[in-house]
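Troubleshooting log. The previous run stalled partway through. Resubmitting the same four chains, unchanged.
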Amino acid sequence: MGNQVVNLASVQSVCQQCGIYSLCLPMGLQRGDIDALDGIIKRRRPLKKGEHLYTSGEEFTSIYAIRSGSMKSYIINEEGEEHVIGFKMPGDLVGLNGINGHKYKNSAKALETCSVCEIPFDQLEALGHEIPGLSHHLIEIMSKEIQDEHHKVAMCSKMPAEARLASMVHTLSLRFEERGFSPNEFNLSMSRNDIANMLGLAVETVSRLFSHFQELGILEVERKHIRILDQEKLSNLIRMD
Amino acid sequence: MGNQVVNLASVQSVCQQCGIYSLCLPMGLQRGDIDALDGIIKRRRPLKKGEHLYTSGEEFTSIYAIRSGSMKSYIINEEGEEHVIGFKMPGDLVGLNGINGHKYKNSAKALETCSVCEIPFDQLEALGHEIPGLSHHLIEIMSKEIQDEHHKVAMCSKMPAEARLASMVHTLSLRFEERGFSPNEFNLSMSRNDIANMLGLAVETVSRLFSHFQELGILEVERKHIRILDQEKLSNLIRMD
DNA sequence: CGCCCTCTTGAATTAAGTCAAATAATGTGG
DNA sequence: CCACATTATTTGACTTAATTCAAGAGGGCG
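Second attempt completed without errors. Output:
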C-alpha cells in the first residue's frame, strides 16, 4: 500500500504490452496515438467457454478486439438454425457489422476462455477525428473484412468438400503463423460441427475428410490437435477439383 | 454562346438531381455537404456493356457509385476461373475492397451501358475530416456490405439450389423496389451463367429451376424478363429445404 | 464410474453435376 | 438486310459427390 518509485518513461499502454497489437487496431499508429486509443479501451472480465460477447439483435455500442482465446461468429436464420460465419482469433475485431443499423447482426461466442478489449464505437469515432490515421485504419480493416468475405463466398459456393476443408486448415495455419505460433501444429478450438457448419458440409463429411487427409499423409489429426505434414499437398488440394 | 440569366438558387448539385442519391453515398448529408461531396466526384463517360470499370490487381485510387445500369463484381482464382461475387445496381458503391492494400481485389464489369460516379478516395477521406457525417456514413456502408456478405456466405454454403435461386430473385426484387421500380416485374441484366456462377450452381440447374418455378406458378420467366406471380410462395422456398 | 455428447465409420439415398443434343438468340461480314 | 457463325438457354439421361440414416467408439464431466 506504500508509495513506490515509478519510472514514468517506462509506463507503456496496455496495447503496447499486448503481444498482438501489431495485428490489431493500433497497427501502424504512433506511440502517442496508441496511448490515446488505449485510453478509451475497456478491459472486461474474461469470457468463459460458451459465453456470448454479444448476440444478434442487441444494441450496438462497441466493437471488440480479441486479446486471447478464440470465438465463433454466427447468425441464426428464420428457422432457428445456426450458421457459423467464421472463427476469430487474437487481434481480430468483431462486431463491425453492427455499425449499420446500431444493432449487432450476428452473435459472438467464446470457444474457450477469452479476453477481449471493448472499444466504445462513439468514442472511437470521436478519436478518429483527432487521429486521422485511426479512422483510415478502421476503414482498411473493414475493407479487408469485405475482401475476406468475398473469398469465403467464392470458396464455399464453388469448391468441392475436400478443397473447402483444405482451404480452411490452410487459412488457419497462416493465421496461427501471423500470430507467432507454429503454422504446422495447432489445436482447433472449434468442434467438428462448427467446422462443418461454416463450410456448408455435414459433420460426417468433415470427419471422413480428416481421416482421408491423414491416409494421404497430409495431416496428422488427433482429436482437436492438427499437425500439417505436407503443406504443399494441402495447397494442391485447394486448387484441384 | 451568349450570356444567360441564371437563377443561382436553382442550381443543384448533380448528386441532388440524381434519382437515387438517397440510397447512395450522399444519403443523410446536409445540402451544403452534398455539394462539397459533389465537388470531388468525377463523372466519366458511360461504360458500354462488357467494359471494365477496374480489374483485379489494378492500383486503387477511387471508389465508384453506380448511377445507372448494372455491373457484376467477380474475382479470378488461381486456375483462371471466374467467381461472380455479386451484382451491383444504381446507388451501390463498388471498389471498397481495394482500400486495403491499395489494389482492387476484384473486377467490375458492365452488364449493360452504365454510368458511374468516380470518387477519388484520398479526396473523400480528406473531406471526411471536414464532414464527420460523411466518414461515418462510409463506415456504415462498409458495415452493411460486411453484413450482406455474411448473409451470402450463409446462403451459398447451406441452402439447397432451389432456395438459393429463390433467395436471389427475392433479393433482386427488394433492390428494384428500393430504387423505385416494380418489385414484381423486372429484367435480369446478367446471364444464366453469371447467376449460376454466383450461386455456386451449374447453368443447367438454374435453367431447370426457372422452369420449375414457372410450373409452380411462382414466376413467369421469359428469357431475361422475370415476373413474380407469388411473392409468398417465393419466400417460402427460401425457408424450406 | 457412468452418462452424455462428440466424433468416426459404413451403407443407402439423393440432390446436383456432367455430358449430350436441340433450340433460340445474337452478332458479323458481305 | 440476309445468311451464316457463334453463343446462350433449355431439356433429357446418366453419374457422382455429398447427405442422411444408422450404429458404434471415444472422451470428458458431474
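Takeaways: Chain A is about 40% helix and 20% strand. Chain A touches chain B through 44 residues (CB under 8 Å).
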